[in-house]
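Job type: complex structure
Entries:
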Amino acid sequence: MTVLVTGGAGYIGSHMVQALAEAGESVVVIDNLSTGFSQFLPQGVPLFIGDAGDENLVEGVISAHGVESVIHFAGSVVVPESMRDPLAYYRNNTMTTRSLLNATVKSGVSRFIFSSTAAVYGNPDQVPVPESAPTRPLSPYGSSKLMAEIMLHDTASAHGMNYVALRYFNVAGADPQARMGLATVGATHLLKIAVEAATGQRAKIDVFGTDYSTPDGSCIRDFIHVSDLAQAHRAALSYLRTGGASMTLNCGYGRGYSVLETIEAVRNVSGRNFAVQYGPRRPGDIMTMIADTSLIRATLDWTPQYDDLETVARHALAWEEKLSREQQGEHQHAASA
Ligand code: UDP
């Protein structure tokens, strides 16, 4: 009864592996370490360094470890990068998923959980956004994930597989014990930038647009704590194991906070009054993204634990402080060597 986690050394995947290991599950990871870190994995979890689209590798791991479910995180996630290099995204997200599905079907694995994104919706006609909303992605990133969702749906129908595709809203925060968190160099997520400003790693944070028709003029997002997101995947696994039918579910808290409120939360938890610069809108930004969470709450046995912006900000900050201490230690070590 082993669970294969692709991308298990990455930001979300490593929280998943930790949650599964803590629940006593047998876990095995495939990660090419392009953006992941092997030190994020708990002791004793086997790591195969390679591509989730390498069918021979996947089939070998499935058969050697008795894999019964696959949770697929491996992929590329940076929207502006997908605009510059769309084919990389169709390769890393769409083609990799196709190969992984092929290997999964050939190996007789019948449960699959897929990391999708709210980016499949594009600019929504209504918020909160239900799963039935039209899918009109505005980036190759969103399109590459939507194409993978479609393949998953068709493959599952043809081969007796059951799946849950989770469409993530804004994933944020870090492990409450700061064992892992977002460590990708150059990450542009709002909370990451804000905690970098709070820890003095950047001089200021820019607010992209204060003239939106929202209460304070800045954009609104539905932030979900990465540990709650991992628990949603565990709930999806239990759902599939008890015979649940294939589903596509939004994954957020169903409540939005503005960019300014988010920055204020980081100022509050850090006690540091870092500089904020109000600038023009960022091209391509959607004004308000909030998940309609009725379906996930009705379908999965999932109760979020960290549904509080200051808690998300506190965990993100604690992780950033640890990361910055480690990086300073490395620099001092290099300087004295
Ligand atoms: N944002 C900002 N300053 C930053 C980073 C982000 O004002 O340094 C805003 C961004 O314009 C958007 C929101 O924060 O309105 C969330 O952006 P992020 O890149 O975190 O996620 P997205 O919702 O774009 O996937």
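Summary: Residues 170, 188-190, 193, 205-208, 219, 221, 259, 282, 285 surround uridine-5'-diphosphate (CB under 6 Å). The two ends are 47 Å apart (CA to CA).
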